[in-house]
Amino acid sequence: MIRMGGTDAMMLSYETASAYMHTFKVAILDPSTDPEGWSFKKFHDDFASRLHLVPMFRWKYAPSPLGINHPMWVDDPNFNIDYHVRRVACPAPGDHRALCEFMSSVYAYQLDRSRPLWMSWVVEGLEGGKVAIVLLLHHAYVDGVGAAYNLQQLYRAEPGWKPEAVPPWQPRPWPSWFKRLWWGSRDLPKVLSKNLPRVISGIRKKKALDESLAAQGRPPHPSMSMMRRTPLNVSLSYGRTFVCDSLPLDNFKRASKGFGVTINDVFLCCAAGVLRRLLRDKHYDPDQHPLIAGTPFAGPRPEGWQGMGNFATADYCWLHSEIEDPVKRLMASHQAAVEMKEHMKATVEAGADLSALFQICPPWIMGALRWYINRQQGGLGMFGNLVLSNVPGPREPIYFNNYKLDSWFSTGQVFDGSCINITMWSYCEHANLCILADSKVIADGWIPFTYFVEELDKLVALIPTADTRGEATHE
Question: What DSSP string runs through 226-242?
């Protein structure tokens, strides 16, 4: 039995029939690197032999009776790998766009809480003989850093690597309702005593920080309560639009070095340009105000929790979609990112960041917050106007047995009010860009994807002649 943290529990309590709290992990395999070629049975057996390396794949959600404490993860005594790993063929013509259409429909699939909260589709019939492993994984299990750790458990730098044989898995007995009630009551004082004083102190320090900003004549730090509603901010429908593809990471590095900013600043600037153009498409004047973007940050992980749990937190930054000039927008994005990092550092040290607050919130409070946000009909979003995430991934190729990982894509969720998620993972000199949106807001995800590429191309074309400002960084 493993007690969930506050952020883990939030991911469960925030879920509804239209707000899916799972993430997408998509691996494109190149079977040509295996002399024996592709075999679904071989993949299936290899995957089964690695399950012990990612124990959470066998964990089932167990609520804490009466909502007295955060839920738990417990071994599923009826675990069946064949339920979770399914073999399908990509719809014709089998190109990348057809794969994205398939993934859009798969994402809009609520996971069954009576089983472990993940599902994998092995998609065959892709161009060039490639195979996609499309994984839905509930965000309650793990954050982005933990997911990257698990990726490196399943995939290795050495082609042909196989784990050592282990004894057959034996699930621990499922705890009764009364035992879970006792455990929840027993653990509650420990949870509160560990987190409540820090949160109370943190709120006071956060208030003092805001008062200090006001005394210096500086504007307040953005928050979700400050977001302005636009046509892109609505309550979620049941449908999703998902697209992804790879861009040369070198273009981000060139812009980063050329303008003396970070790769993340370039990412923010391009995302702001995308939103500016989408608002114009919706006949909304983007010059009226900037947007507010919610951005997750990696937090410290306790020893032994490398591949499980949510230890990330989040903060907000201004997304300067109101600035038309790409270079001026890039400089404003750089300043917004610097301010967000300073604010995040101060709030984490104070104990007033979102993850600290979630630790002391019982599930019913998160349910009430979800209900309140839903009632705003898009006027308020947990992550502001949209969700943005930029994660550096492996720099060298990795393999699943002998199958080379050709591309890796990952994205999180969208929320009521925060209906667009733009996520970028780097892998082997590629920037793998994902755009997830409510289909009611964006019917064709390739439109904002094309906008992003064009915004990046604009920046590259405007790089000063002497682009020797130093090494590019992701931060």
Answer: GPPP-TT-----S-EEE
Reported as type and span, the H/E element at residue 150 is helix 144-154
Distance, in Å, from the CA atom of 441 to the CA atom of 236, rounded to the nearest integer, reads 9
**CA–CA dist 435, 62 (Å, integer):** 32
Q: At what angle do helices 446-461 and 249-259 cross, to 10 degrees?
A: 40
Distance between CA atoms of residues 225 and 292, nearest Å: 10
Helices 263-281 and 446-461 pack at an angle, to 10 degrees, of 130
Catalytic pick among 139, 320, 334, 430 = 139
**Domains (ranges, CATH) in the chain?**
2-161+175-182 (3.30.559.10), 191-394+411-461 (3.30.559.30)
Q: Comparing C-alpha atoms, which of 41, 147, 63, 1 is closest to residue 401?
A: 41
Residue found under tokens 């034996």: 170
Phi/psi at 391 (nearest 5 deg)?
-125, 125
Q: Note if 139 is an active site residue.
A: yes
Q: Which residues pair with 408 in a beta bridge?
A: 27
HEC profile of 330-343: HHHHHHHHHHHHHH
Backbone angles phi, psi at 42, to 5 degrees: -65, -45
Per-residue tens of pLDDT for the chain, all 475 residues: 788 888 888 899 889 999 999 999 999 999 999 999 999 999 999 999 999 999 999 999 999 888 888 899 999 999 999 999 999 999 999 999 999 999 999 999 899 999 999 999 999 999 999 999 999 999 999 998 888 889 889 999 999 999 999 999 999 999 998 888 888 888 877 777 776 766 667 667 677 777 777 787 777 889 889 999 999 999 999 999 999 999 999 999 999 999 999 999 999 999 999 999 999 999 999 999 999 999 988 777 888 888 888 887 888 999 999 999 999 999 999 999 999 988 887 776 666 566 667 777 777 777 788 888 888 888 899 899 999 999 888 889 999 999 999 999 999 999 999 999 999 999 999 999 999 999 999 999 999 999 999 999 999 999 987 544 445 555 6
> Does an H or E element contain 180, and which?
helix 177-215
- Hey, what are 217's tokens? 């004549």
Place of tokens 């996971």: 111
Q: What are phi and psi of 131, to 5 degrees?
A: -130, 135
In the structure, how many helices (H) and strands (E) does the chain have? 12, 15
Amino acid symbol at 225: S
- In terms of Cα–Cα distance, which of 388, 393, 425, 409 is closest to 268? 388
Quick one: CA dihedral 276, 279, 284, 290, positive or negative? Answer: negative
**Which contiguous run of DSSP H or E holds residue 134?**
strand 131-138
- CB 79, CB 58: distance < 8 Å: yes
Residue 154 CA, distance from chain mean position: 19
